[in-house]
Design a protein that fits this description.
Helices cover about 10% and strands about 35% of the residues. The protein contains 5 helices and 23 strands. The protein is mainly β. It folds into 4 domains: about 90 residues, no CATH class; about 60 residues, no CATH class; about 80 residues, Sandwich (Immunoglobulin-like); about 80 residues, Immunoglobulins (Immunoglobulin-like, Sandwich), CATH 2.60.40. The longest helix is centred in the N-terminal third of the chain and has 9 residues. The strands form 7 sheets. Strands 9, 10, 12, 13 and 14 form a 5-stranded antiparallel sheet that branches.
Length: about 325
């Protein structure tokens, strides 16, 4: 096979016959010769593989993954003797199966020089199972990348890959203590994905399995009680952790029998947490009073009330982000 390939693919116009790399089947020259290979060359002297009366281009490889690729799949040109065939003996190769390889969206964007953030990836296999191209869905639209470029950029062993996607999207609404939060994303091409959570980013616990649409989209309701990281997990891989900041739940009211103060409540009961009462002046919120949360989770502040909009701001504490009440309108 090596002799036939060499004779069919001699380099033209150069002071040498073969390249010392993948361009010539990784021929490494004299440094790669061994007594055993030299003996095989001598034992088969003068023998070549012919097809149609010409020396055949007998491409060879160290591992096929279990099935060879046709010339039409690889080069776009059909050659009668270079067709896809099962290769069950490849099971003996240490590279028969490899992966999984986890690659982040930012890495793909950087390695492939994609100008916009990558949201999704998919590819259609050729009859031999390899990918010809990969479609990347980005914030700027779809773009197609040749599978050979993907292989080189990400240092993959071949283009015979299956693409799985794990994506957890930032929730559109802020997370508030005691309120449900909808998490959504994509979990496609991978088996039994689960949603996991962590308070510290080190120890993770399973929240539960994901119910997915046929296309892999999912949504899951969570009710975090403090700032929490979430991720999607499968065997051997996980999505990046998504940090969800949870704010305290704050309410502000005007006591009916006390026109000189504002009161409210905070959940959870953040005893001792600082509270700032603010009034809207033009387009900016300006502090007009301060107080603290008591042991029951309540607060009261003396305020020189004038008609306008007021709100309460509770400082971040105990793993909770800063909490802000809905605006309260004072008319008199």
């Amino acid at each position: 096979a090596a002799r036939s390939y060499t004779l069919a693919n001699l380099v033209k116009g150069k002071p040498f016959d073969l390249y010392p790399d993948q361009r010539s089947q990784v021929y490494v020259g004299l440094s790669g010769e061994r007594p055993e290979t030299s003996a095989a060359v001598r034992a088969t002297a003068g023998q070549v593989v012919l097809y149609g009366g010409r020396v055949a281009s007998t491409l060879y490889f160290s591992s096929s993954g279990g099935k060879t690729a046709s010339s039409a799949d690889v080069f776009g040109v059909a050659v009668p003797y270079l067709v896809s065939k099962p290769d069950p003996w490849d099971r003996l190769s240490p590279y028969h199966r490899w992966g999984p390889i986890v690659v982040g969206a930012r890495t793909i964007q950087s390695k492939l020089d994609v100008p916009a953030r990558v949201l999704d990836a998919s590819g259609v296999p050729t009859p031999s199972g390899r990918l010809r191209a990969v479609t990347l869905e980005t914030t700027a639209g779809a773009t197609s990348v040749p599978a050979a470029l993907l292989r080189t950029a990400l240092e993959l062993r071949s283009t015979w890959v299956s693409i799985g996607v794990l994506r957890l999207d930032h929730p559109p609404d802020p997370a508030v203590y005691g309120s449900p939060l909808e998490l959504s994303g994509l979990a496609r091409g991978l088996q039994t994905p689960t949603l996991s959570s962590s308070k510290d980013g080190v120890s993770w616990r399973t929240v539960g399995p994901l119910q997915r649409s046929p296309g892999g989209a999912f949504s899951a309701a969570v009710r975090p009680t403090a700032t929490t990281r979430y991720r999607i997990q499968v065997i051997g891989a996980a999505s990046p952790g998504l940090l969800v900041s949870v704010s305290s739940r704050v309410r502000l009211a005007q006591p009916a029998l006390d026109p000189t103060s504002l009161s409210g409540m905070v959940r959870p009961k953040l005893s001792g947490a600082a509270v700032s009462i603010e009034r809207l002046k033009g387009t900016a919120w300006t502090p007009v009073a301060s107080t603290a949360v008591d042991g029951a989770g309540s607060f009261r502040a003396r305020v020189k009330l004038v008609p306008g909009s007021y709100r309460a701001r509770v400082a971040a504490t105990n793993g909770l982000a800063e909490g802000i009440s809905p605006p309260l309108t004072v008319t008199e």
